[in-house]
């Protein structure tokens, strides 16, 4: 009897230790809640969520949708999101204003990608010179004022001779062009371009590939998250890289996902995917693109106080997650 009781006590003790170990292991795998700013045309974050890449890398992801990447970046300021992506312009605007840092580049635009940015104008505008005195759309918080400035300069014009009208999203610019509230606007993305091409009284005047402007895309976050949870940031970046590769390798599945979640036409996703390839990393070209955009923003007064760009780039989590994809050195 004593022997039986002893065995039961031993087994009970082992079971308790086993339960404790299982509980400890479960706790160690607890997912970190991360709010991610996104837009309706970007499939990468949604692929990472749908295919489990975020979960596999320790992230409990919540996607928060915005009209433009710039709006998503601005949401960092009010702590509506933890991480955002965007072009060089909104990223630099963010890091110039507070305790934020660029944690990765998502790639540099090719000439083909630049050509997807189309300039549509009213039919009476036949040449760049006809833009003088006209109302021209730009998305607030984006690089588009810079693009307008460069487009005017290369045609020996001054953008101050036109009126730039700020708007919040492509749909707003589309309506303004349709109603005649603006005379010209830049658009990108197959879905919105198809709508614009169907408008009466407008035509394509040019595209961004005919300018020197090439967009860099990057990812930004707050320094609190980067410093206190570098493993979380590394896991996020690894998941995004995996999703970027997966979406390119499985275009039909990606198109189905975008239609299911956002009702984006499958044909639009299939057209856009090969022209907008994300490659998570950081190169000298990414730094040079940011430096060029920063110079414009400082010179034009958009950034009121200059800063050391290198101090606003935090790559340790990226080096941890994807060491081979960081070739830039300070």
Overall description:
- Helix 2 packs across helix 11 and helix 12 crosses helix 13.
- The strands form 4 sheets. A 3-stranded antiparallel beta sheet has the order 3-10-4. It has a 3-stranded antiparallel beta sheet with strand order 8-5-9, with helices on one face. Strands 1-2 form a two-stranded parallel ribbon.
- By secondary structure, it is α/β, with parallel strands linked by helices.
- The protein folds into 2 domains: 190 residues, D-Maltodextrin-Binding Protein, domain 2; 99 residues, D-Maltodextrin-Binding Protein, domain 2 (3-Layer(aba) Sandwich), CATH 3.40.190.10.
- The protein is built from 15 helices and 10 strands.
- The longest helix is centred in the first third of the chain and has 27 residues.
- 47% of the residues lie in helices and 19% in strands.
- The termini are far apart.
- The N terminus is likely disordered.
What is the strand and helix layout of this fold?
Blueprint: H1 2-28, E1 32-39, H2 44-50, H3 53-56, E2 59-66, H4 69-74, E3 83-87, H5 88-97, E4 100-108, H6 111-114, E5 118-122, E6 135-139, H7 144-154, E7 163-167, H8 170-179, E8 184-187, H9 190-197, E9 202-207, E10 216-222, H10 223-228, H11 230-249, H12 251-262, H13 266-272, H14 284-299, H15 316-321
Helix pairs in contact: 2-11, 12-13
């Amino acid at each position: 009897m004593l022997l039986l009781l002893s065995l039961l006590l031993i087994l009970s003790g082992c079971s308790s230790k086993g339960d404790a170990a299982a509980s400890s292991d479960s706790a160690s795998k607890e997912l970190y809640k991360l709010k991610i700013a996104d837009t309706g045309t970007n499939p990468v974050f949604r692929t990472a969520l749908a295919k489990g890449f975020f979960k596999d890398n320790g992230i409990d992801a919540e996607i928060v949708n915005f009209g433009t990447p710039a709006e998503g970046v601005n949401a960092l300021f009010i702590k509506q999101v933890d991480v955002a992506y965007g072009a060089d312009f909104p990223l630099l605007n963010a890091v110039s204003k507070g305790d934020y840092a660029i944690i990765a580049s998502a790639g540099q635009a090719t000439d083909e990608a630049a050509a997807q940015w189309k300039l549509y104008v009213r039919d009476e505008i036949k040449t760049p010179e006809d833009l003088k005195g006209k109302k021209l759309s730009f998305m607030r918080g984006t690089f588009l004022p810079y693009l307008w400035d460069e487009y005017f300069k290369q045609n020996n014009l001054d953008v101050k001779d036109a009126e730039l009208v700020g708007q919040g999203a492509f749909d707003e610019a589309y309506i303004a062009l349709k109603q005649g509230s603006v005379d010209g606007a830049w658009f990108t993305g197959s879905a919105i371009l198809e709508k614009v091409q169907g408008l009466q009284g407008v035509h394509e005047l040019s595209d961004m590939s005919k300018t020197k402007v090439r967009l860099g895309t990057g990812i930004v976050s707050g320094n609190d998250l980067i410093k206190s949870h570098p493993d979380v940031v590394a896991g996020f970046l690894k998941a995004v890289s995996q999703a970027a590769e997966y979406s390119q390798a499985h275009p039909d599945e990606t198109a189905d996902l975008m239609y299911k979640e956002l009702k984006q036409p499958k044909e639009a996703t299939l057209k856009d995917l090969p022209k907008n390839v994300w490659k998570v990393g950081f190169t000298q070209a990414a730094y040079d693109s940011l430096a060029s955009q920063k110079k414009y923003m400082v010179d034009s007064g958009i950034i009121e106080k200059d800063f050391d760009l290198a101090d606003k780039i935090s790559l340790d989590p990226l080096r941890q997650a994807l060491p081979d994809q960081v070739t830039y050195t300070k």
